[in-house]
Amino acid sequence: MKITCHPDDVVWVINELHAVAEAVRTYGDLGRTGVDQPRLEGLPTQLYLLAAAVEAQMRALLHTDQLCASRLFRALPSLDDPPRSVMHFDLTAADTVVVSAVSTEICIAELSDAHQRLIAATKRLRTSLQSQAMAPLYESLDNEAEQLRLFVAAFA
Fold this sequence. Notes:
By secondary structure, this protein is an all-alpha fold. It has 4 helices and 2 strands, in the order E-H-H-H-E-H. Strands 1-2 form a two-stranded antiparallel sheet. The protein is elongated, with a radius of gyration of 19 Å. It starts with a strand and ends with a helix.
């Protein structure tokens, strides 16, 4: 399998996973009236953990790429070589929103949108970060998307 990493796209996915996690946190418990209904309480945390794993994989691939390139193109280090290089990524903080007195219909609409965003982010990730190490992360993201879909369907 080839290894591909497009950092700008991966950063977009990481930011989107954070935003989806906060949407699920905001609207996931609202509208729940019975104890038998499904819950999403662990989903935001899981999405943050998956975003962190994606970021770690991206950084590892970029580090390896830069290290190999520097060793390939510079047989002997010179005094002009910088001791280190720094990469900056445009990661953003997701806002935590607290709402009250929101109808179940609004909650379901927001969670449906979050589900579609999660599906789109996962699809984009599959094309922007390809590595054998990503297979378990893709599976976990698919599982979280399915959990969210089932939650929304329980209210439909």
